[in-house]
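Q: I'm teaching a short session on how sequence maps to structure, and I want students to see two examples side by side rather than one. Could you give me a first protein with its sequence written out and its structure tokens following it? Keep the formatting plain so it prints cleanly on a handout.
A: Of course. Example one:
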Amino acid sequence: MNSEVFITDGHWRKSLAAVRALGEKGIKVTVGESTRLATAAFSRYCHQAVVYPSPLLRPAEFLEFLHNKLSRRSYQMLLPMEDETMDLISKHHSEFSSLTYVPIVSFDKLDFARRKDKVLQLAEKEGIPIPKTWYIENISQLNELKDTLPYPVVIKPKTSSGAVGITYPENYVELIEQYMSVHKHFPYPMIQELIPREGTGYGASFLLDEKGQVKASFVHKRLREYPVTGGASTLRESARYDDIRDMALSLLKKLDWFGVAMVEFKLDPRDGVPKLMEINPRFWGSLHLSVEAGVNFPYLIYRMSRNEKFKPVEDYEVGKQCRWMLPGDILHFIKNPRRASLMPEYFHFWNKNTSYDILSLKDPLPVLGRILTPLTFIYDRDMKQRLKKRKL
């Protein structure tokens, strides 16, 4: 029986985590990306690396390439890792599912889960706590709200990833200026109350089968992030938080979810209540932590693709830490005005309890791939577009 897996978006550290998680189980992995300098392609566990047309700039050609690749070579499973590839593949789900196992939901469900406004409204209806949110449908509403908003507030696009498009106006003048700036790229963003930054962020990650049954779950808390004001975690720790797990699961079941997803919460220090932030309806950047703590999501999906029966994996090592050093945690240190409070623990690089997203003595070459990645922003049109999207 075939044991090879195709993973897209080899540039990202979560793709590297998936390659390693499968490769260490003896599974051959093909890594695809629109540039040769893809971090995951440098891994010792990458059996084959392929360069495909940009899903962002040449979507039709990407789909044709992928279809031909899967038709000519037998793959057990296809794992799309990023938004652009997931969108395209989900829109052609039946076509690709006839060629291999594709553990993602339909495009309609994917699109709904990405809509922060729809998810928040659904959560509130289900009794899941959310930050106070103002849904803007007309610019004139800003004038009506100017004297009632609890500044500083957060302007947040209805659909975006990471910290893209998020701003923190501290008064009405800044609100108008920043809102109109974000509105140009992300029409009618929401306005939210700002949960105090000392509130801890949590992520509840799941793997659900075709019947919506839990096959794996994992909770982690954020210890550091970049940008410092809110972004991807640069240091995180495995944790237990049953209330967050249960709320996240109830939301995913309401969406009739299948495959992986991470539901993000932030603990409000004012009342001690975790508030829903958003759903990340794909593999998450901190995937390596769950694998290190004992929940190997990529391998469990692989087992599902073979129709293997296994008990839900929900026991894992609590207190395990994982660090995104290059360049995330370095940038956090540089940009953090309170960096002195991080020392001397920040420089304890060889803590046995801490693993790294990219750095690995067993698999060292992806570091070279990550160092070379900035070169792609110089000559690669697709990578320039990605960088531009993240700077909007």
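Q: Perfect. Now a second example for contrast.
A: Example two:
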Amino acid sequence: MSQQIYASDRIKQAVLERFKKLGESVVSDLEKGAFPKIEVPARTTSNIVYDERLRQYVLGGKKMERTARNVRHLRPFAQLLWIATFAKQLIQRGKTSTLRDTYYVAIGEGIDFEDQAESDELIMQLESILDFPREDFNIFPEERASIYGDLVIEYTVPGFRGRRIDLSAHPDGFAIGPALTTAELVKCRAEQVFVIEKGAVFARFVEEGADKKYKAILIHTAGQSPRNCRKLIRRLHDELNLPIYVFTDADPWGVHIASVLIHGSALSAHIKEINVPDAAWAGVWPSDIRRYKLPSMKLSDRDVKRIQELEDDPRYQKDPWRREIKEFWKIKRKAELEAFSRYGLEFIVEEFLPERLAELQRR
């Protein structure tokens, strides 16, 4: 009986084809007696443009050439080819690596990286060349996000291929790692997704049965959402047609966490479709501080500087972003999701959540 072909298998095959073309272009240059060269999309702020069709910021058409003809390019050229070779082997052998692990493997093989930051930068360059995220060539960040809810998945990775698991089977949630991100979404009774910045509030939602009361999948981002987590959120929206609601702190950093999930990030502008343009930022809003009389803190100088940066960012020129940034200037305060606990442990799920969902659904 033939083995089932999953969507993740097709993606891996497409990535291998890109690796093949990259290698063939280098070999072709060498066979012609020419210095090999690679064109790398420019990941600069001047080359980041808004794509109306995708509804996210992406890289424009500017490219820079990396060529063996230039002695200053030789070292990063060789490093890039090593990373491409290593990533191709990961796919072919059904193995995974992390950003940190890749750096140490490189050092072990005599590849001269000064530090992990240099290795990470070249991995991002490879992403932009291939037009695939590093997760698709099996290099992942350290995982910290988790998921809980009425969803059955089927693993597609070697050793666990075909095995199914119910994501409501563990009260702490399941880590959103490479195996879960690439799994098939088999059976879902949920009708929406709550994405939560803070671990304590994620745990409170689980304890108070928010997943059952609101037929929701719960996701904990642990701060800024890792790309694996963003990719899974996008899949839940696209493949299961689930609306996404994002809950963050009412501070400029929480605002940005929500915006990255919805609009995408400048750092990942070379990666398409890991944001969810239709997701809703559900709070905590700065205006909620006054509305619910939440315990709050004064904005720090660092907060003020960050708010000024948000004001100048094109992603924040429409409501609710513009409205809520103005609110920061009015109240000069910030608050955390946990602030609702002043009214009791159940308040955020029993009172705030239905009020906010009803408000957003009326808009």
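Q: What should students look for in example two?
A: Point them to this: The chain has a mean pLDDT of 93. Also worth mentioning: The chain has two domains: 7-140, 189-362.
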